[in-house]
Protein backbone atom coordinates (compact mmCIF):
# COMPACT_ATOMS: atom_id res chain seq x y z
CA UNK A 1 0.00 0.00 0.00
CA UNK A 2 1.47 3.41 -0.93
CA UNK A 3 2.47 5.63 1.95
CA UNK A 4 2.78 8.89 0.02
CA UNK A 5 1.19 10.96 -2.73
CA UNK A 6 2.73 12.56 -5.83
CA UNK A 7 1.09 15.69 -7.23
CA UNK A 8 2.10 17.94 -10.10
CA UNK A 9 0.58 21.37 -9.53
CA UNK A 10 1.16 24.92 -10.64
CA UNK A 11 1.18 27.37 -7.74
CA UNK A 12 1.11 31.15 -7.78
CA UNK A 13 4.44 32.19 -6.20
CA UNK A 14 2.59 34.73 -4.06
CA UNK A 15 0.39 32.00 -2.55
CA UNK A 16 3.05 29.91 -0.85
CA UNK A 17 3.47 26.19 -1.33
CA UNK A 18 2.83 25.44 2.34
CA UNK A 19 -0.65 26.98 2.10
CA UNK A 20 -1.56 24.74 -0.83
CA UNK A 21 -0.19 21.62 0.86
CA UNK A 22 -2.07 22.40 4.09
CA UNK A 23 -5.29 23.00 2.14
CA UNK A 24 -4.96 19.70 0.26
CA UNK A 25 -4.16 17.76 3.44
CA UNK A 26 -6.98 19.40 5.39
CA UNK A 27 -9.67 18.92 2.75
CA UNK A 28 -8.67 15.36 1.87
CA UNK A 29 -8.57 14.40 5.55
CA UNK A 30 -12.07 15.80 6.14
CA UNK A 31 -13.51 14.06 3.08
CA UNK A 32 -11.91 10.69 3.87
CA UNK A 33 -12.96 10.79 7.52
CA UNK A 34 -16.54 11.61 6.51
CA UNK A 35 -16.63 8.79 3.97
CA UNK A 36 -14.80 6.24 6.15
CA UNK A 37 -15.91 6.81 9.75
CA UNK A 38 -13.57 4.10 11.06
CA UNK A 39 -10.52 6.18 10.19
CA UNK A 40 -11.18 8.54 13.09
CA UNK A 41 -10.86 5.77 15.68
CA UNK A 42 -7.91 4.03 13.97
CA UNK A 43 -5.75 7.06 13.13
CA UNK A 44 -5.33 10.14 15.27
CA UNK A 45 -3.95 11.98 12.23
CA UNK A 46 -4.21 11.05 8.57
CA UNK A 47 -1.20 13.06 7.35
CA UNK A 48 2.20 13.84 8.85
CA UNK A 49 3.27 17.45 9.42
CA UNK A 50 6.06 17.17 6.85
CA UNK A 51 6.08 17.41 3.06
CA UNK A 52 8.60 17.52 0.21
CA UNK A 53 8.48 20.02 -2.65
CA UNK A 54 10.56 20.11 -5.82
CA UNK A 55 10.31 22.28 -8.90
CA UNK A 56 10.35 21.18 -12.52
CA UNK A 57 12.05 24.36 -13.70
CA UNK A 58 9.64 25.45 -16.39
CA UNK A 59 9.46 22.02 -18.00
CA UNK A 60 6.04 21.54 -19.63
CA UNK A 61 3.67 19.45 -17.49
CA UNK A 62 3.08 16.86 -20.24
CA UNK A 63 6.83 16.15 -20.43
CA UNK A 64 7.09 15.70 -16.66
CA UNK A 65 4.03 13.44 -16.66
CA UNK A 66 5.32 11.23 -19.48
CA UNK A 67 8.71 10.79 -17.79
CA UNK A 68 7.07 9.97 -14.46
CA UNK A 69 5.03 7.18 -16.06
CA UNK A 70 8.01 5.38 -17.63
Give a description of the structure.
This protein has 70 residues and is an all-alpha fold. It has one domain. It is built from three helices and no strands. The chain is extended, with a radius of gyration of 15 Å. The two termini are 20 Å apart. The model has no long low-confidence stretch (mean pLDDT 84). GO terms for molecular function: DNA binding; transposase activity. InterPro entries: Transposase_17, Transposase_17_sf. It holds the Pfam family Y1_Tnp. This is REP element-mobilizing transposase RayT.
Number of domains in the coordinates?
1
Order of helical and strand elements:
HHH
- Radius of gyration computed on alpha carbons: 15 Å
The class by helix and strand makeup works out as mainly alpha
- Relative strand content: under 5%
Catalogue the unreliable spans: none
Ends apart, CA distance between termini: 20 Å
Number of helices: 3
Helical percentage: 40-55%
The coarse overall form would be extended
Mean pLDDT: 84
Per DSSP E runs of 2 or more residues, the count of β-strands stands at: 0
The profile of the biggest β sheet is: none
Protein name: REP element-mobilizing transposase RayT
Domain Transposase IS200-like: 1-65
GO molecular function, one term: transposase activity
